[in-house]
């Protein structure tokens, strides 16, 4: 478990480095295509650094705002607080802040850059449809994400992917609005400018795809580890297995979720249509495989 925590910290570092380089390249290409020249490099550095530090320190607030999650007090949901407090003590973690989403679709996720700044978010549907053992299994799963520093990786990907998509869109729009002028200027500057235009177009198209593949790869692998560590925390694998069965059987989509935050949840909140291609690009491993692994413990 401690080796996994160390690996996730390094994953966070390389994830930041990868997106920094990608954002830097996108803004530099945008600057060259629009005639900004060296100023594009300066803007690239400013945007990349600002977005990286902003996503690191404000990622939990951004995700909570997108998900329309509201903080709750112990007097409002003592049942939830007791479960979270007990499992935080068992895991040796500070008690995460509790948030709730006003939606009847059962689901949950954790967020925050480290255990001291972590939050656990559940829907009203989760509290209404799960029994005590099942709820403990779900909360333990989210505690495992926090302890393994999966939360840092997850929340960073939400903001970073959004930045890459935004910059790629800017480049594509620059081609649409300045295409004729750019073609004329490229003829005057020679083949170098034409190559730059081609590289910019390819980068603008492929960058969102590459960033999404990175997000999906990180997302799928972490779920099995969190299931195992969550079962270790409660000492009762059937609790989480039963919860996953209920969540899989409930076909109600979570209205507050979207494609940018879907990978944070314990199960896919968008309820994608089943199919080979959907499984290939899914943010979660097949839930049947997760249940099977828990039942074998």
Overall description:
This protein is mainly alpha-helical and 297 residues long. The chain folds into 2 domains: 124 residues, no CATH class; 148 residues, Metalloproteases ("zincins"), catalytic domain (Zincin-like, 2-Layer Sandwich), CATH 3.30.2010.10. The protein has 10 helices and 4 strands; from the N terminus they run ααβαβββααααααα. A 4-stranded mixed sheet has the order 1-2-4-3, sandwiched between helices. A hairpin with a 7-residue loop joins β3 and β4. The chain is elongated and about 65 Å long. The relative contact order is 0.14.
Summarize this entry quickly.
This protein is mainly alpha-helical.
Which keywords apply here?
elongated, 297 residues, single chain, mainly alpha, Zincin-like
Low-pLDDT runs of 5+ residues are 180-186
Rg to the nearest angstrom?
22 Å
How is the largest sheet built, in terms of strand order? 1-2-4-3
What's the structural domain tally? Answer: 2
Helical percent range? Answer: over 70%
Rounded to the nearest angstrom, the distance between the terminal CA atoms is: 17 Å
Give the biggest beta sheet: 4 strands, mixed
- Named at the architecture level, the CATH assignment of the largest domain is 2-Layer Sandwich
Per the CATH scheme, the topology name of the largest domain is: Zincin-like
The strand count comes to: 4
SSE run? HHEHEEEHHHHHHH
Number of helices: 10
CATH class category name of the largest domain:
Alpha Beta
Strand portion: 5-15%
Structural class: mainly alpha
CATH superfamily of the largest domain, by name, is Metalloproteases ("zincins"), catalytic domain
Q: What characteristic shape results from the CA principal axes?
A: elongated
């Amino acid at each position: 478990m401690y080796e996994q925590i160390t690996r996730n910290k390094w994953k966070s570092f390389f994830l930041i480095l990868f997106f920094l380089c990608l954002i830097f390249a996108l803004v530099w290409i945008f600057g060259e295509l629009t005639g900004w020249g060296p100023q594009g490099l300066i803007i690239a550095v400013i945007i990349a650094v600002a977005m990286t530090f902003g996503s690191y320190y404000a990622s939990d607030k951004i995700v909570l705002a997108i998900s329309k999650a509201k903080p709750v007090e112990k007097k409002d949901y003592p049942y939830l607080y007791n479960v979270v407090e007990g499992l935080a003590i068992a895991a040796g973690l500070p008690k995460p802040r509790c948030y709730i989403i006003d939606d009847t679709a059962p689901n949950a996720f954790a967020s925050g850059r480290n255990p001291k700044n972590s939050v656990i978010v559940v829907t009203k549907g989760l509290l209404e449809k799960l029994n005590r053992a099942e709820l403990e299994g779900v909360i333990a799963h989210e505690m495992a994400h926090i302890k393994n520093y999966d939360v840092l990786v997850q929340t960073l990907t939400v903001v970073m992917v959004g930045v890459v998509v935004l910059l790629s869109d800017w480049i594509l729009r620059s081609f649409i609005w300045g295409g004729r002028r750019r073609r004329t200027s490229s003829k005057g500057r020679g083949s170098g400018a034409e190559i730059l235009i081609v590289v910019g177009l390819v980068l603008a198209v492929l960058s969102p795809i590459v960033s999404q593949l990175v997000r999906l790869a990180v997302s799928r692998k972490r779920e099995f580890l969190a299931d195992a560590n969550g079962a270790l925390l409660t000492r009762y694998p059937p609790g989480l297995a039963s919860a996953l069965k209920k969540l899989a059987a409930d076909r109600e989509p979570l209205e507050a979720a979207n494609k940018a935050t879907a990978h944070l949840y314990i199960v896919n909140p968008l309820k994608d249509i089943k199919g080979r291609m959907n499984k290939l690009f899914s943010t979660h491993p097949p839930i049947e495989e997760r249940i099977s692994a828990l039942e074998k413990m």
